[in-house]
Amino acid sequence: MLRRAVKNQAIHGICISAEAPPISHLLFADDSIFFVRATIQEADVVNDILRKYEAASGQLVSLEKTTVVFSRGVIRGQRDAVSARLGVEEVREHARYLGLPTVVGRSKKVITDIIRDKLSKRLQGWREKILSRAGKEVLIKAVANSLTTYVMSVFKIPANFCDELRAIVARFWWGHDESKRGIHWVSWRKMARPKGEGGLGFRDFRQFNLALLGKQAWRLLTNPTSLWSRLMKVRYFPDNDFMTARVGYNPSYTWRGILEAREVMRVLDVRISPNKPLDIWYWGLEKDGLYTVRSAYKMLVGKLGDMAEATAIMDGLEEAAARGIRKVEMESDCLPVIEAIRDKQLGRSMFHQLLDDIVKFSLQFESVIWSYVSRVNNCVAHGLAHCIPRAVGKVVLEDGLPPSVNTAVAFDRLLIE
User: Is the pLDDT higher at 19 or at 124?
Assistant: First the structure.
């Protein structure tokens, strides 16, 4: 009935641009949102459709739970008339829908407060209980992680807030009560490793957020005819495709997050299917070629670390070339990267493109030796990496080593002597 009314121009939906399809209604479970013009005529059409629906289905619309929101250009008299004709209350805006804020401005406090409050209340309720380590592990994975999933699948959570969530969960894991804080014996980075690698399998909130947003990016790629995809294309990339789209003018917070996930998908090697008669997007981490958050998260945790290591190797080669060094021995404690360079692995991802650049750049030297060194025997480089803030980028130490690294240097000298 709604579609027929739109087709007959009895009601008019909203359009975000002249080329965008009109939206007259959105339905989810038992919730309905109608978009019409603020006129008595269209209000009567909506009332008529609702009365027919009630008669046909036997269900009644709860007017007490129904509200109407007007745009800024509607004058007060028109608002009162339309509200009275519909028999519902006017509100300024719907603060939340399905638990998420409907409007997000420059401040992301409205998003972070939702997650923080829910997580703190759930963990606080169990803090006074006597729980074993196994019980805490189950609670964190079943409750704490699930609370953030829905919000993170829509919005890109600020990095500092992801660190705050990690701190809340870590305090619950190590703490005993409000008056006594437990000692954090192991770093969260190690606890977030899979159990097969000696960790507990806790989530890295930043990478999990990107993996969830990658699902939205995947939908834009693989389902371009859906209403949401058509609206996003008209709004943000009308003249090109999603993989080459830019941020654009006055973008939404959701769109910014999806673009970050798109960059991650390039790192994770989304490619054209080799087995289909038609070119389609193929997710190489799953046998059926379909994107999954689980596979993306696993690859993010490992691949981005490899990407950082490969970038450091490229920086080292460039510095050696600038100093006129002709013979190079490159050591790394990241075995996957060293093996990938030695084997000259091929691929279309940003990681493989960087590997190709490393191999080509190394041809200008007389010799380059690629050596894997375990973390135990790589204490100097590991210590230097922790001394330099990540935001600084490449640093050349001209005035000696930091004091915290001197112990490792002295130990290496003893081994050599």
Answer: 19
Burial 330-365 (b: 16+ CB within 10 A, else e): bebbbebbbebbeeeeeeebbbbebbeebeebbeee
For residue 14, list its beta bridge partners.
23
Q: Exposure of 180 by Cβ count < 10 A (0-12 exposed, 13-18 middle, 19+ buried)? A: exposed
User: How far is the C-alpha of 170 from the C-alpha of 164, rounded, in Å?
Assistant: 10
Cβ atoms of 45 and 5 closer than 8 Å: yes
Specify whether the CB–CB gap between 93 and 102 falls below 8 A.
yes
Nearest to 384 by CA among 303, 319, 312, 301: 312
Residues 6+ away with beta carbon under 8 Å from 336: 302, 306
Amino acid letter at 16?
A: I
- CATH among 2.40.128, 3.30.200, 1.10.10, 3.30.420 for 299-416: 3.30.420
Domain extents for the chain? 2-94, 109-203, 299-416
Give the pLDDT band of residue 327 (cuts 50, 70, 90): very high
Q: Is the pTM of this model over 0.90?
A: no
